[in-house]
Amino acid sequence: MEHHREEPGLPLPRGPLSGGVEAYLRGAGRLPRLEDAARAEVYGEDLQLALYLCYELHYRGFAGVSTDREWDPDLLRVRAALEHRFLSALRADARAHDSVDGALADLLVEPVDGAGVTHFLRDEGELWHLREYAAQRSLYHLKEADPHAWVLPRLWGRAKAAMAAVEFDEWGGGRADRVHARLFADLMTDLGLDTTYGRYLDAACAEALVTVNLMSLFGLHRALRGALVGHFATVEITSSPGSRRLAEAMRRTGAGPAAEHFYDEHVEADAVHEQVVRQDVIGGLLADEPHLAPDVAFGIDATEFVEDRFAARLLADWRASRSSLSAPLAPEVAHTS
After folding, report:
1. Is 292 exposed, middle or buried (0-12, 13-18, 19+ CB in 10 A)?
2. What are 19-43's pLDDT values in tens digits?
3. How would residue 18 be classed by pLDDT, with cut points 50, 70 and 90?
4. How far apart are alpha carbons 148 and 167 in whole angstroms?
5. In sequence order, what are the residues at sequence separation of 6 or more whose Cβ sits closer than 8 angstroms to the Cβ of residue 219?
6. How far apart are CA 15 and CA 86, in angstroms?
């Protein structure tokens, strides 16, 4: 099933920052003050939703919002203040490695007694857990690979060619029915979820917003191209084993063939991508620009940091038998074979 292509509606605000940005986008109010961004909880719902609203203007935008807002100078000043708060916090909180080799070495080690989200979903997850996980991840997966595409004009030579090759696979290798965003929409259909782009923005927790905002932050700034490559490497290296566990979870719970296929596809594709990204994207980038090595390591560390926070939130809620969502899902609609 093709997911809906129309512009999504604006979400409900979650505080004065997101409320101010939303009102401005609707032409119904003033933007928040720059100093308000400096006082907000950096990983909290209000700041992260405000930042998400700013970033989404560079993707599909919002219904009823003028395309002129994408480059509105006043809005960009607010976005810059939000980004400064976010990036400063990440640099203070997420730095764990001094070298790319050290950061990659840790990514390549699979814990023997893993206890993360994909382990939980494989071993004991129920369909409602899988539905919540898919709803939260839909903020990225319905535009899968798009945030990473921002880096392509900022690379050249071996790194550019390899990055473009991996992105081409993510976009279905030239086949619309194999575009990964399309495959995820099919997964959502199996799980009885609405495939409308942006449908679950109101439901997503702050920790999920952070994971998507990180990609946009890195992608929209040329100065952070090394960090985006680090992010991309983290996703590709960790995807295959995690996808294998998620495919098993889909099979065990009878989620449906499209739900299984999405993760089966990532087991195979990302095992290949991991080698290309490490050897040619990172290798090519650092051969051309060795001074970007600390940025690549930072991108890896920041990705691990925000994903760990998201995982901790999900597991804390699920183990307490409560929803991880900010708004409830509609009742499941059974899929048909």
Report:
1. buried
2. 999 999 999 999 999 999 889 999 9
3. very high
4. 8
5. 147, 148, 149, 150, 151, 228
6. 17
Dihedral angle sign, alpha carbons of residues 322, 326, 330, 332: negative
Q: What token pair was written down for 87?
A: 């990036």
Q: How confident is the model at residue 5 (pLDDT cuts 50, 70, 90)?
A: low
Alpha-helical segments (H) within 94-179: 100-107, 117-123, 127-141, 146-149, 157-170
Burial 325-337 (b: 16+ CB within 10 A, else e): bbeebeeeeebee
Q: What is the DSSP string of 271-321?
A: HHHHHHIIIIIIHHHHHH-GGGHHHHHHHHHHHHHHHHHHHHHHHHHHHTT
- pLDDT confidence tier of residue 95, bands split at 50, 70 and 90: confident
Distance CA 139, CA 133 (A): 11
Residue 259: both structure tokens together:
């739900």
| 113 phi, psi to nearest 5 deg | -110, 55
The one-letter amino acid code at 102 reads G
| pLDDT tops 70 at residue 11 | yes
Its sign, for the CA torsion 28, 33, 39, 44, is: positive
Share of the chain above pLDDT 90, in %: 83
d(CA 129, CA 28): 38
- Please state, in angstroms and rounded to a whole number, the distance separating the CA atoms of residues 123 and 201: 28
Q: For the whole model, what pTM was predicted?
A: 0.94
